[in-house]
């Protein structure tokens, strides 16, 4: 049922976070959240979708947790009271507390990201395993070990304060970035959730430029969501998008954030690169300068590839071709080489490169876009 699937996407993190807060049991929280969705799948087609699907699911999940706790012998009274008594509300969102818990430095980085994607975003273990290029059983063990480590180390379920907050922040930002990218590639709800949580974090840490910069970056990228695909669902390159369909309110908010935010880290540079595209035409010379700075701060192959693109558009395709990093079996490099070769006036070479990049790319919108460029030539 579509309504249940939508409720899963929108409310999974809220249900799990609430149950973890009131019971302290991660496994029980996830199991009862899943049970609540199963009850919804049974009842909603018959009784209708409730006016507040998220509240309905939280209530059902909490009742399920209470039933299981009543059957348990250990700490029965304490846990039952925790579930039955509505906890006092404060300004800290349960899901934000959950993210900070998932991103505790006691956990390996991959475990932090995987646990957050599973527990906060509600992605399936199979989807997370594919993202990490491991088998599903391997990812299941990784997530299980992370939960056990949280329990054994008695990691507190709260947003840290003082110096600990600054120490934990990069891990949280990395998780939010991953959540947004997942939404940017198709699951819009995840992108919306990443923006919501980042906005909340910016309110919690108003002096942190990287938090504000990340929010600005998300707003600019998300502003193009309605123009990124055509009627068939195929990707539309940035230079061919209908810019009148971009969300100008989101862009204006992002630019206002950047005006008052100093440049103190890579997210600030990424945000200014994204902002270079928001005009009637992309400001490639400014973008190239920002990429030069980013390459000094974050000297990765992907940054060097994008830097080559920027310089190719700013100063001519031959300049970009000279700057391309040498990476074997990386279709994106081949695709960039094809685009710059086409702009250099060598269509036959470009057509061959586009087809080679398509052959190296899994079937999907990206591959269709590459084949379409080859056909145009």
Radius of gyration: 23 Å
* Mean pLDDT value: 86
CATH structural fold name of the largest domain: Arc Repressor Mutant, subunit A
Instruction: Work out the strand percent.
Output: under 5%
For the record, give the distance between the C-alpha atoms at the N and C termini, rounded to a whole number: 44 Å
Helix content: over 70%
Total count of strands: 0
Enumerate the spans where pLDDT stays under 50 for 5 or more consecutive residues.
Answer: none
Biggest β-sheet description: none
Which CATH architecture of the largest domain? Orthogonal Bundle
Number of helices: 19
**What is the CATH domain class of the largest domain?**
Mainly Alpha
Class by helix and strand content?
mainly alpha
Write the H/E string, N to C: HHHHHHHHHHHHHHHHHHH
The overall number of domains is 5
Shape category = globular
GO molecular function, one term: DNA binding
Domain RNA polymerase sigma factor 70 region 4 type: 99-150
InterPro entries: DUF6596, RNA_pol_sigma-70_dom, RNA_pol_sigma70_r2, RNA_pol_sigma70_r4_t2, RNA_pol_sigma_r2, RNA_pol_sigma_r3/r4-like, WH-like_DNA-bd_sf
Protein name: RNA polymerase sigma-70 factor (ECF subfamily)
Description:
With 377 residues, the chain is mostly helical. The protein has 5 domains: 2-89; 90-187, Arc Repressor Mutant, subunit A; 206-282, no CATH class; 294-326, no CATH class; 329-377, no CATH class. It is built from 19 helices and no strands. It has helices spanning 2-23, 26-47, 53-71, 76-84, 94-102, 109-119, 125-132, 136-152, 163-184, 188-204, 209-222, 248-259, 266-275, 284-297, 301-315, 317-323, 331-343, 347-359, 365-376. Helix 12 crosses helix 13, helix 14 packs antiparallel against helix 15 and helix 15 (301-315) runs antiparallel to helix 16.
